[in-house]
């Protein structure tokens, strides 16, 4: 995007803040607070309670979120069992490039890949 890769982060931040959301950096979350089956806030490692007005967003792995941050009593037994068997796999990601021509692949096989 125009402005570099950071422009996407900045745009998402502006959108969130325009809707009343806040991003807090540099604070470790110790626990996701759950009431009535819903995440209603977090407690920081420093002991501060942060109450969510609408949602709690987590940017951590599944094992970190459900294994460390959410109390197991809030999770169905089958989910906890599935989590115990969780195995990391190869990561998948997608990158979109705006190019002025085809990619000059060195490997013939790669040049036949569809998009």
Written overview of the protein:
By secondary structure, the chain is α+β, with helices and mostly antiparallel strands. The protein has a domain of 64 residues. It contains four helices and three strands. The protein has a three-stranded antiparallel sheet, covered by helices on one side.
Mean pLDDT: 89
Largest sheet: 3 strands, antiparallel
What are the low-pLDDT stretches, counting only 5+ consecutive residues below 50?
none
Strand-pairing-aware structural class: alpha+beta
Key attributes of the depicted protein:
115 residues, alpha+beta, 3-stranded antiparallel sheet, 29% helix
Strands, helices and their partners?
Blueprint: H1 6-18, E1 29-35, E2 38-44, E3 49-51, H2 62-69, H3 77-84, H4 108-111
Antiparallel strand pairs: 1-2, 2-3
Briefly, what is this?
The protein is an alpha+beta fold. It has helices spanning 6-18, 62-69, 77-84, 108-111; strands at residues 29-35, 38-44, 49-51.
